[in-house]
Predict the 3D structure of the following.
Amino acid sequence: MKEPGVFVSLEGIDGCGKSSLKEGLLAYLGQYQVISTREPGGTSISEKIRALLLDINNEAMLPRTEAMLYGAARCQLVDEIIRPALVDGKIVLADRYMDSTLAYQGYGRGLDLDFLQALNALCTGGVKPDLTLLLDISPEEGLRRRGKNIPDRLEKEGIDFQQKVRVGYLHMARQEPQRIKVLDAGRNLDEVLAAAINYIEPLLMLKQNVSRETMRSSL
């Protein structure tokens, strides 16, 4: 019997600091086997879908098309990367996952949430994060942090869209407080990283305890 894998996802509006936090967490988790993923992307097919989704020239893309393309990229990522990694007892650290679809295409675009929940279930096959760290920040601060970076197709939607997405994320956090933990992303990176580690450590302890029990049972 293999030790359990651990699945942690990072979520938040554009400019919230997910990439910086991810780098810090990868350094902290250096002693473990960690698989780092991003959405959309992470596999050859998913990266091609990413290019379609973020291309600013694809302004005519319908919200339903957008949602289903995100779902297709996620389906490929789950079956090709995430599920095998968890079966092998590895840690998966994901920059966005299923909650992004509900926040962006649901609360942001106004698509039916039940439809998106069903789409997520189909595309993930039930693979759900053990822990989701939601980096909460105001859209104004997120825009300031992005600075002069060239915005992709979704980043071009503006402050009002980002505010809808933020409201959606916070609503989901209230619905699933055991899984989704809200971090104040307005603090400095060291403080945000410390808070994130505080939530991750219990999962790592459980993983280590199961591993020791598995070793003892095999003797």
Notes: The chain has one domain: 6-217.
